[in-house]
Amino acid sequence: IENFGDLSSADANSDTDSDGDSDLVEFTKGTNPKVADYDVTFSLGDYGTLTSGSLSQRINAGAGATAPEFVTDDYWVFTGWDKTFSEISGDLSITAQYEADDDNDNIANSTDTDRDGDGLFNDAEIASGTDPDDSDSDDDGLLDGVETGGGIFSDSTDTGTNPLVADTDGDGLLDGAEVTAGTNPTLEDTDNDGLIDKVETGSGTFVDKSDTGTNPLVADSDGDGLLDGVETELVNKINSAPKGDDVPDAISIGSFEPGLISFDTLGSNTSDTEIGLYDSEGVLLITNDDTPELSFQSMIQLELVKGTYYIAIHQYNTEFGGNNFEVTSTVEATQSFKVNVRSGSFDIENDIMAESTSESANNPLWFSVQIGSAPSVYDPNIDNSDSDSDNDGSILSEEIAAGTDPLDEDSDDDGILDGAEATAGTNPLSNDSDSDGLVDGVETGTGTFVDSNNTGTDPLLTDTDDDNVSDKIEVDQNTNPNDANSYPTRTLTAEATSNGSITSTDTHKLGANTTVTATPDLGYLFSAWTGDASGSDNPLTITIDGNKTIGATFTKDTADTDGDGFSNHDELVVHETDPADANSYPGKTLNLNISRNGNKIILQWDGGTLQKSANLEKEWINVTTDDGSPVISPFQIDINNKEEFFRVTE
Question: Which domains does the chain have, with CATH numbers?
Answer without folding.
Answer: 36-100 (2.60.40.4270), 251-371 (2.60.120), 593-649 (no CATH)
